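Quick one: structure for this chain?
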Amino acid sequence: MFVRLASFVVFAVIGWQISLALSPASNEGEGYLPWGLAITAITVVSGIAGGIYGPRLIDTLTRAVDEVSRVSLSTIVSGTLGLVVGLIVAALVSIPFFQLPGELNWIIPFIIMGTFAFVGLSIGLHREQDLHLILPGAGGGSRPSTGAKVRILMDTSAIIDGRIGDLSETGFVQGSLIVPQFVLDELRHIADSSDSIRRTRGRRGLEVLANLRRNNDLPIQFTDAQVPRGGEVDTELVRMAKEIKAYILTTDYNLNRVAELNGVHVLNVNQLANALKPVVLPGETLAVNIIQEGKELGQGVAFLDDGTMVVVEGGRRFINSIQEVTVTRVLQTAAGRIIFAQPRGVYR
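Got it. Here's what it folds into:
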């Protein structure tokens, strides 16, 4: 209502001033009464139009400013260079046409300058990726250059996962963590969920962020970035990573694939965990605690410290005991690795 009222007043004043400027009564001493009614009508109509369309106009301008603010610095620099080069070439080409008689001496140069400016701007925007050849570090792709401080955008799934907290304490993760406002909002929404499981996961994520803030070894930064109306969190995260040349830290498989297709480098915690699992070869001996039955008759199941499942053939009779087993084969599945083994004897 405040915006509508302000728009009504502003547009009414504009209509009033325009009608006064057009009124013959302002220049002549007669005909004031009819024009007085016309001025009043124009002022009222302008105010009503402002009250109706003013908020829409402000919303459109706000969106336009928001879109411009999202443009990366490399895009602005490359577009500006293209525009300047286009205007310089247009000025040189237009020199002969300034000697033409009549209005042609400015109409033709004006058309040439507009055309070359548009062409130069378009070429500059399309050749943004080559800008680093002229200005090192100003252009380039989505992956940070060697030696630059790495910036890592955190996804909601990676925060809830919690392993980033342990990784930060080991010193293997270098750079700075960035949490956009829309990711934090999504995390808070999960923490306020009526589902107890989702609520627990959301609160765990908030606790992980609090612990990361207390860890001075790995700086964490919160930004005010928001998802545009009708947009998606994953799409905005990928766009933001491309704009600021950052990595994305996630455990989301779909986000991982979308980011890779857009040329954004991804740090997947699950892939890191799989890469760090110890290599187990057939014939090696393991000491495992058999805790449950397997799917097949007589099988027992144990788990290694990293969560890898060990299926012990004939291990059902050893449930709730620690046994020495010999690895017979290793099966790699989409869910992870499964180790099959045979018992060797009582370990303890």
